[in-house]
Protein backbone atom coordinates (compact mmCIF):
# COMPACT_ATOMS: atom_id res chain seq x y z
CA UNK A 1 0.00 0.00 0.00
CA UNK A 2 1.26 3.50 -0.77
CA UNK A 3 1.85 6.03 2.01
CA UNK A 4 -1.02 8.11 0.62
CA UNK A 5 -3.46 5.18 0.74
CA UNK A 6 -2.34 4.33 4.29
CA UNK A 7 -2.85 7.96 5.39
CA UNK A 8 -6.39 7.95 3.93
CA UNK A 9 -7.28 4.83 5.92
CA UNK A 10 -5.68 6.04 9.16
CA UNK A 11 -7.46 9.39 8.88
CA UNK A 12 -10.82 7.63 8.41
CA UNK A 13 -10.52 5.47 11.50
CA UNK A 14 -12.19 6.15 14.81
CA UNK A 15 -9.45 5.75 17.45
CA UNK A 16 -11.56 5.25 20.53
CA UNK A 17 -11.73 5.42 24.27
CA UNK A 18 -9.03 6.43 26.66
CA UNK A 19 -6.40 4.49 24.72
CA UNK A 20 -6.91 6.14 21.32
CA UNK A 21 -6.61 2.80 19.59
CA UNK A 22 -8.54 0.51 17.28
CA UNK A 23 -8.93 -3.20 18.00
CA UNK A 24 -7.00 -5.37 15.60
CA UNK A 25 -7.89 -9.04 15.08
CA UNK A 26 -5.22 -11.15 13.40
CA UNK A 27 -6.52 -13.97 11.24
CA UNK A 28 -4.48 -16.60 9.37
CA UNK A 29 -5.23 -15.94 5.69
CA UNK A 30 -5.06 -19.67 4.85
CA UNK A 31 -6.68 -21.51 7.77
CA UNK A 32 -8.91 -18.58 8.92
CA UNK A 33 -7.82 -19.32 12.52
CA UNK A 34 -7.85 -16.28 14.80
CA UNK A 35 -4.27 -15.82 16.00
CA UNK A 36 -4.38 -12.91 18.44
CA UNK A 37 -6.03 -9.59 19.28
CA UNK A 38 -4.08 -6.37 19.76
CA UNK A 39 -4.42 -2.62 19.94
CA UNK A 40 -3.20 -0.31 17.19
CA UNK A 41 -2.85 3.44 17.60
CA UNK A 42 -2.48 5.72 14.55
CA UNK A 43 1.23 5.03 14.17
CA UNK A 44 0.92 1.24 14.63
CA UNK A 45 -1.84 1.04 12.00
CA UNK A 46 0.13 3.26 9.61
CA UNK A 47 3.27 1.14 10.01
CA UNK A 48 1.24 -2.07 9.54
CA UNK A 49 -0.24 -0.75 6.29
CA UNK A 50 2.98 0.67 4.83
CA UNK A 51 5.51 -2.00 5.88
CA UNK A 52 3.25 -5.04 5.42
CA UNK A 53 4.25 -6.34 8.87
CA UNK A 54 1.93 -6.07 11.90
CA UNK A 55 2.69 -3.38 14.49
CA UNK A 56 0.86 -2.75 17.78
CA UNK A 57 0.62 -0.24 20.60
CA UNK A 58 1.39 -1.68 24.01
CA UNK A 59 -1.04 -0.16 26.51
CA UNK A 60 1.16 -1.17 29.44
CA UNK A 61 4.61 -0.27 28.05
CA UNK A 62 3.34 2.74 26.03
CA UNK A 63 5.45 1.79 23.05
CA UNK A 64 5.02 0.60 19.46
CA UNK A 65 6.15 -2.95 18.88
CA UNK A 66 6.38 -5.08 15.75
CA UNK A 67 5.29 -8.71 15.90
CA UNK A 68 8.44 -10.76 15.33
CA UNK A 69 10.92 -8.06 16.35
CA UNK A 70 12.41 -10.39 18.98
CA UNK A 71 11.15 -13.84 17.89
CA UNK A 72 11.62 -13.41 14.14
CA UNK A 73 8.04 -14.68 13.74
CA UNK A 74 6.73 -11.81 11.61
CA UNK A 75 3.15 -11.66 10.39
CA UNK A 76 3.00 -10.70 6.72
CA UNK A 77 -0.09 -8.63 5.89
CA UNK A 78 -2.21 -10.04 3.05
CA UNK A 79 -5.43 -8.04 3.48
CA UNK A 80 -7.07 -5.58 5.87
CA UNK A 81 -10.83 -5.46 6.53
CA UNK A 82 -12.44 -2.42 8.16
CA UNK A 83 -15.59 -2.66 10.28
CA UNK A 84 -18.84 -0.72 9.93
CA UNK A 85 -18.02 1.98 12.49
CA UNK A 86 -14.30 2.19 11.72
CA UNK A 87 -13.03 1.29 15.18
CA UNK A 88 -11.76 -2.24 14.46
CA UNK A 89 -9.81 -4.03 11.75
CA UNK A 90 -9.27 -7.64 10.76
CA UNK A 91 -5.74 -8.14 9.46
CA UNK A 92 -5.35 -11.27 7.36
CA UNK A 93 -1.79 -12.45 7.71
CA UNK A 94 0.66 -15.14 6.71
CA UNK A 95 2.41 -15.99 10.00
CA UNK A 96 6.11 -16.88 9.84
CA UNK A 97 5.97 -18.99 13.00
CA UNK A 98 3.83 -19.34 16.12
CA UNK A 99 2.02 -16.17 17.14
CA UNK A 100 1.66 -16.86 20.88
CA UNK A 101 4.53 -16.31 23.34
CA UNK A 102 3.66 -19.79 24.72
CA UNK A 103 4.80 -21.33 21.43
CA UNK A 104 1.26 -22.13 20.33
CA UNK A 105 0.21 -21.18 16.82
CA UNK A 106 -2.63 -19.02 18.19
CA UNK A 107 -3.08 -17.17 21.49
CA UNK A 108 -6.59 -18.73 21.54
CA UNK A 109 -5.30 -22.28 22.01
CA UNK A 110 -7.72 -23.28 24.80
CA UNK A 111 -11.38 -24.09 24.35
CA UNK A 112 -13.42 -23.48 27.50
CA UNK A 113 -13.49 -27.25 28.12
CA UNK A 114 -9.70 -27.47 28.15
CA UNK A 115 -9.57 -24.30 30.25
CA UNK A 116 -11.98 -25.71 32.87
CA UNK A 117 -10.18 -29.06 32.96
CA UNK A 118 -6.95 -27.26 33.92
CA UNK A 119 -8.44 -25.09 36.70
CA UNK B 1 -22.58 -24.66 30.43
CA UNK B 2 -23.51 -24.84 34.11
CA UNK B 3 -23.59 -21.73 36.30
CA UNK B 4 -20.67 -23.11 38.30
CA UNK B 5 -18.54 -23.61 35.17
CA UNK B 6 -19.43 -20.12 33.95
CA UNK B 7 -18.46 -18.60 37.33
CA UNK B 8 -15.08 -20.39 37.22
CA UNK B 9 -14.35 -18.92 33.78
CA UNK B 10 -15.53 -15.41 34.66
CA UNK B 11 -13.45 -15.44 37.87
CA UNK B 12 -10.34 -16.46 35.89
CA UNK B 13 -10.59 -13.66 33.36
CA UNK B 14 -8.59 -10.48 33.44
CA UNK B 15 -11.10 -7.64 32.92
CA UNK B 16 -8.77 -4.89 31.82
CA UNK B 17 -8.27 -1.19 31.45
CA UNK B 18 -10.64 1.58 32.35
CA UNK B 19 -13.61 -0.34 30.93
CA UNK B 20 -13.24 -3.53 33.00
CA UNK B 21 -14.03 -5.63 29.95
CA UNK B 22 -12.55 -8.40 27.85
CA UNK B 23 -12.45 -8.20 24.06
CA UNK B 24 -14.79 -10.65 22.40
CA UNK B 25 -14.32 -11.72 18.78
CA UNK B 26 -17.34 -13.39 17.17
CA UNK B 27 -16.51 -16.01 14.56
CA UNK B 28 -18.94 -17.98 12.41
CA UNK B 29 -18.44 -21.60 13.49
CA UNK B 30 -19.04 -22.89 9.94
CA UNK B 31 -17.38 -20.40 7.58
CA UNK B 32 -14.78 -19.12 10.12
CA UNK B 33 -15.62 -15.57 8.99
CA UNK B 34 -15.10 -12.91 11.68
CA UNK B 35 -18.51 -11.32 12.28
CA UNK B 36 -17.88 -8.55 14.82
CA UNK B 37 -15.85 -7.46 17.83
CA UNK B 38 -17.43 -6.38 21.10
CA UNK B 39 -16.70 -5.76 24.75
CA UNK B 40 -17.91 -8.05 27.52
CA UNK B 41 -17.86 -7.14 31.18
CA UNK B 42 -18.27 -9.80 33.90
CA UNK B 43 -22.05 -9.92 33.58
CA UNK B 44 -22.09 -9.98 29.75
CA UNK B 45 -19.60 -12.86 29.68
CA UNK B 46 -21.52 -14.76 32.37
CA UNK B 47 -24.81 -14.31 30.49
CA UNK B 48 -23.17 -15.39 27.21
CA UNK B 49 -21.85 -18.57 28.84
CA UNK B 50 -25.02 -19.52 30.71
CA UNK B 51 -27.71 -18.57 28.15
CA UNK B 52 -25.82 -19.65 25.02
CA UNK B 53 -26.60 -16.30 23.35
CA UNK B 54 -24.04 -13.51 23.01
CA UNK B 55 -24.30 -10.53 25.36
CA UNK B 56 -22.14 -7.38 25.38
CA UNK B 57 -21.40 -4.32 27.45
CA UNK B 58 -22.01 -1.06 25.63
CA UNK B 59 -19.24 1.36 26.58
CA UNK B 60 -21.27 4.34 25.37
CA UNK B 61 -24.70 3.42 26.73
CA UNK B 62 -23.32 1.69 29.88
CA UNK B 63 -25.78 -1.16 29.53
CA UNK B 64 -25.80 -4.88 28.82
CA UNK B 65 -27.31 -5.81 25.47
CA UNK B 66 -28.02 -9.13 23.83
CA UNK B 67 -27.27 -9.57 20.14
CA UNK B 68 -30.65 -10.06 18.45
CA UNK B 69 -32.76 -8.48 21.20
CA UNK B 70 -34.23 -6.03 18.66
CA UNK B 71 -33.42 -7.68 15.29
CA UNK B 72 -34.16 -11.27 16.29
CA UNK B 73 -30.77 -12.19 14.79
CA UNK B 74 -29.37 -14.04 17.80
CA UNK B 75 -25.93 -15.59 17.79
CA UNK B 76 -26.00 -19.11 19.23
CA UNK B 77 -22.80 -19.97 21.12
CA UNK B 78 -21.09 -23.16 19.93
CA UNK B 79 -17.66 -22.81 21.57
CA UNK B 80 -15.59 -20.29 23.53
CA UNK B 81 -11.80 -19.99 23.23
CA UNK B 82 -9.75 -18.16 25.87
CA UNK B 83 -6.47 -16.40 25.07
CA UNK B 84 -3.09 -16.82 26.76
CA UNK B 85 -3.41 -13.87 29.15
CA UNK B 86 -7.15 -14.23 29.76
CA UNK B 87 -8.20 -10.81 28.52
CA UNK B 88 -9.86 -11.84 25.24
CA UNK B 89 -12.20 -14.56 24.02
CA UNK B 90 -13.19 -15.95 20.64
CA UNK B 91 -16.86 -16.93 20.63
CA UNK B 92 -17.72 -19.38 17.86
CA UNK B 93 -21.35 -18.84 16.94
CA UNK B 94 -24.11 -19.92 14.64
CA UNK B 95 -25.65 -16.61 13.49
CA UNK B 96 -29.42 -16.50 12.98
CA UNK B 97 -29.22 -13.68 10.42
CA UNK B 98 -26.86 -10.85 9.47
CA UNK B 99 -24.66 -9.62 12.31
CA UNK B 100 -24.06 -6.06 11.09
CA UNK B 101 -26.64 -3.28 11.55
CA UNK B 102 -26.00 -2.45 7.85
CA UNK B 103 -27.55 -5.78 6.90
CA UNK B 104 -24.23 -7.31 5.93
CA UNK B 105 -23.39 -10.76 7.26
CA UNK B 106 -20.26 -9.40 8.96
CA UNK B 107 -19.34 -5.95 10.29
CA UNK B 108 -16.02 -6.44 8.45
CA UNK B 109 -17.59 -6.31 4.98
CA UNK B 110 -15.05 -3.92 3.41
CA UNK B 111 -11.53 -4.85 2.36
CA UNK B 112 -9.19 -1.85 2.36
CA UNK B 113 -9.41 -1.74 -1.45
CA UNK B 114 -13.20 -1.36 -1.37
CA UNK B 115 -12.86 1.12 1.50
CA UNK B 116 -10.37 3.30 -0.46
CA UNK B 117 -12.48 3.14 -3.62
CA UNK B 118 -15.41 4.64 -1.69
CA UNK B 119 -13.48 7.49 -0.07
Commentary on this structure:
2 copies of one chain form a homodimer. The first copy, chain A, is of the alpha+beta class. Chain A has 3 helices and 7 strands, in the order αββαβββββα. In chain A, the strands form 2 sheets. The first copy, chain A, has a 4-stranded mixed β-sheet with strand order 2-1-6-5. The first copy, chain A, has a two-stranded antiparallel sheet with strand order 3-4. In chain A, α1 packs antiparallel against α2. The longest helix of chain A is centred in the first third of the chain and has 10 residues. The mean pLDDT of chain A is 94. β5 of chain A pairs antiparallel with β7 of chain B, so a sheet runs across the interface.
The biggest beta sheet of chain A reads: 4 strands, mixed
CATH architectural grouping of chain A: Roll
Given as residue ranges, the uncertain stretches of chain A (5+ residues, pLDDT < 50) are: none
The number of distinct helices of chain A, counting runs of at least 4 residues, comes to: 3
User: Which CATH first-tier class of chain A would you pick?
Assistant: Alpha Beta
Q: From the structure provided, what is the oligomeric state, counting identical versus distinct chains? A: homodimer
- As for the CATH topology of chain A, it is Ubiquitin-like (UB roll)
Amino acid sequence: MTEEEAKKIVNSMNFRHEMNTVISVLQDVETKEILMVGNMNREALYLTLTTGKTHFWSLTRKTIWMKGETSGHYQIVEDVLIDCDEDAVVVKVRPEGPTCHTGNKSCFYRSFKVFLANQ
